[in-house]
Write a structure and sequence with these properties.
This protein is α+β, with helices and mostly antiparallel strands and 487 residues long. It has helices at residues 2-22, 29-51, 70-76, 79-90, 109-115, 124-132, 142-162, 164-179, 189-206, 213-233, 243-267, 277-283, 288-319, 321-335, 342-345, 349-362, 393-396, 417-425, 435-454, and strands at 93-98, 101-106, 187-188, 368-371, 376-378, 381-383, 388-391, 455-459, 467-468, 474-475, 480-485.
């Protein structure tokens, strides 16, 4: 209706102008014509905006013709915070504009259930990362995409199994470091967790090259440059406006790709004692570019998701004494004085509840995306083909209709089977679980088993941790903790 009305007004005004022009020029004609031209341009802009309204889907029109609602997103602080406001105002299905592209966001479990296809071969978080890195999407037929997905998932499983001893060793090294600190010393948690995650993931993905501390430092620096731009620079359009930043980003990405290409070449046709993630891809029927893209996505995403899951889990444990006590009791019951083994790790049911609640409470990955392959319907709304559809997971994970007392850290909520099913539907557990998150769950479980067994994890009095929402949620400033030895 808005579009039609706009067209009718524009047509009627054009007819009026033609009548006036037919009567011939009047004094000051050139000035009048200039004013009319400007007026026509303004009307065309308004008409264009009206025509870009999503058909019947509530939301906001573009603020600017070229940038769409990007200025609104920047002013909100993040895409997640923009979506929170949008869903509060317009409901579970909303629309806005990325540049000239229509975007539809889904913000409740009910509407997500209508849209999520469990048979999809692409993970929405990985799809979004590939788009931001400007990699080609899978693009093959269904069977090829399914094969590639299985290779990816099997690679995660095999590398976790093969590198369990490595994860245990790195966790124990961190424990020894923390045990050496006086009890009053503040520990920079975010910094230590990122270092631990990068060491763990790089060796799982790329092997013994990253036993060298200098290689780890170099990778972490390049990873930080690339991730910072993926998380912010592309979304707010600022990267393309700074030649220096863009060059730093491209150089860092090139260096990461260079080391991956070198390792892919080394692993082809060779047998190694340690099975790594790249081996699973090399052994499959993938070309070098596909292996490069998949190993890059897994390396980038797993490092940051693992680091932030470890950080948030420990943060919540420091402020939830009863939860930490119950977790310690489970760890003590399962392992006793014996070794930590893969078989016994699987018995840590409460630990898994703690990690699921960490993902929910921290809104660990607040947004994922899919491209609408064919025209579809959600609720009463038609979503046009090739619309970008966002899953506003950060909004959904704090919805009080789904999660009673959503701001309370309560692992007990995952005792409820219906809650577990909802979490699985959202891609945070079960068969729909993001492979990078599955890796993070295992790494964090091993780390917590080692740390909580020997240490009390304590908060720093008076510290307020503010949240920064990007592709993966983090703290705005360093998160500090203290530790003390268990008796």
């Amino acid at each position: 209706m808005v579009f039609k009305a706009g067209r009718l007004v524009a047509i009627s005004r054009r007819v009026r102008y033609r009548r006036e022009e037919a009567q011939g020029p009047s004094p000051g004609f050139s000035n009048v014509e200039k004013l009319r031209k400007k007026s026509r341009q303004r009307r065309l802009r308004r008409s264009s905006q009206a025509s870009r309204q999503a058909a019947g889907i509530p939301g906001v029109p573009p603020t600017e013709e070229k940038d769409g609602n990007l200025p609104d997103i920047v002013n909100s602080g993040s895409l997640h915070e923009f979506l929170v406001h949008l869903h509060e105002r317009y409901g579970p299905v909303v629309s806005f504009w990325f540049g000239r592209r229509l975007v539809v966001s889904l913000g409740t479990v009910d509407v997500l259930k209508q849209h999520i296809n469990p048979n999809k071969t692409s993970d929405p978080f990985e799809t979004m990362l590939k788009s931001l890195l400007r990699y080609q999407s899978t693009g093959g037929n269904v069977s090829e995409n399914h094969m590639r997905k299985k290779l990816y998932e099997n690679g995660v499983t095999a590398s976790l199994q093969s590198n369990f001893a490595l994860l245990l060793k790195l966790s124990e090294e961190l424990l020894d470091k923390w045990l050496s600190y006086p009890e009053s010393q503040h520990v920079p948690l975010s910094q230590h967790m990122l270092g631990f995650a990068v060491k763990s993931v790089t060796q799982m993905v790329m092997g013994s090259t990253f036993e060298d501390g200098q290689e780890v430092v170099r990778f972490q620096k390049n990873h930080g440059t690339v991730w910072a731009e993926i998380g912010k620079g592309f979304l707010d359009g600022s990267l393309d406006k700074s030649a220096n930043r863009k060059k730093q980003y491209e150089d860092a990405l090139m260096q990461l790709e260079s080391i991956l290409k070198k390792i892919i070449k080394e692993r082809r046709g060779m047998n190694f004692n340690q099975h790594i993630f790249i081996d699973s891809l090399v052994q499959g029927n993938l070309n070098d570019q596909q292996i490069l893209e998949d190993s890059m996505i897994f390396s980038l995403a797993s490092c940051i998701i693992t680091a932030k899951l470890c950080t948030w889990a420990i943060c919540f444990l420091t402020t939830s004494e009863e939860v930490q006590k119950k977790l310690y009791e489970e760890i003590d019951q399962v392992f006793g004085k014996g070794p930590i083994t893969p078989e016994k790790i699987e018995q840590l049911r409460y630990c898994r509840q703690v990690l699921c609640e960490t993902v929910r409470a921290a809104r660990l990955t607040p947004v994922s995306a899919r491209l609408q392959d064919v025209e579809g319907k959600v609720d009463k709304f038609i979503i046009p083909r090739e619309t970008l559809v966002l899953y506003a997971l950060g909004v959904v994970l704090q919805d009080p209709r789904t999660w009673p007392s959503p701001h309370k850290f309560d692992p007990e909520r995952f005792d409820d089977e219906s809650v577990v099913k909802t979490f699985s539907l959202l891609g945070f557990s079960g068969t729909q679980e993001c492979p990078e998150l599955r890796c993070a769950y295992m790494v964090t479980t091993v780390l917590l088993s080692v740390l909580v067994r020997r240490l009390h994890l304590l908060s720093v009095e008076g510290q307020v941790i503010e949240t920064k929402y990007e592709l993966v949620t983090s703290s705005k400033e360093e998160a500090w903790i203290t530790v003390s030895k268990r008796c």
